[in-house]
Amino acid sequence: MTPERLRRIQEVLQFRQGNLSVVMENVQDPHNISAVMRTCDAVGIQDIYVLNTKIPRHKKFGFKSSSSAQKWLSIHQYDSLSECVALIKEKYDKLYCTHLNAEATELYDMDFTQSMALVFGNEHEGVSEEMRASCDGNFIIPQLGMIQSLNISVACAITIYEAFRQKKNAGHYAGGFTHPNIESIKNEWLSPDKNR
């Protein structure tokens, strides 16, 4: 490994966030999954949860060759909603989803400096009713057009860049808020497999 590569890894690791995560529920398009991964990597989100309760097991998680970002992320895969939610609630204080209803909070009124995981749903059906019932609340991205929905990867990017803005302003990228497993992540990143 070159000194430049090592320096880059160490620089990136110091901004990995341990109190913000993304959950993709039944997202089917590998391009959407790949785009979400790249955006998460860009803002320092380390942990991504991929929940898939609808696609047959042998066809699941079709992102293996779709994203170079995946090798720098910790991807947790589940086919049980209850198991996935239980683990997330152990690690994060709040669980929110994107869903348009009367109780939804507007994106820019959310406090993203809290410890939270954000759920983005299927391209056609959105977040499932069971997942919505498991969440602490839901939020919407304000829109003025005739179509009241965005592609999942776009919605995720808008949301986590607002989270990035808030967290940066709150000093979360200035040290002290890094991922709790940063040493094990560093060891994994320094392995020969990651640096081919």
How are the strands of the biggest sheet laid out side by side? 3-2-1-6-4-7-5
CATH class: Alpha Beta
Number of helices: 6
CATH architecture: 3-Layer(aba) Sandwich
CATH superfamily: SPOUT methyltransferase, trefoil knot domain
**Sequence stretches where pLDDT stays below 50 over 5 or more residues:** none
Rounded to the nearest angstrom, the distance between the terminal CA atoms is: 9 Å
Strand content: 15-25%
Structural class: alpha/beta
Mean pLDDT: 89
Helix content: 25-40%
N-to-C order of helices and strands: HEHEEHEEEHEHH
The whole-angstrom Rg is 17 Å
Structural domain count: 1
Q: What's the total number of strands?
A: 7
Which fold name fills CATH's third level, the topology?
Alpha/beta knot
Biggest pleated-sheet summary: 7 strands, parallel
Sum up the overall morphology in one term.
Answer: globular
Can you describe what's shown?
The chain is α/β, with parallel strands linked by helices and 196 residues long. 35% of the residues lie in helices and 16% in strands. The chain has one domain: Alpha/beta knot (3-Layer(aba) Sandwich), CATH 3.40.1280. It has a seven-stranded parallel β-sheet with strand order 3-2-1-6-4-7-5, with helices on both faces.
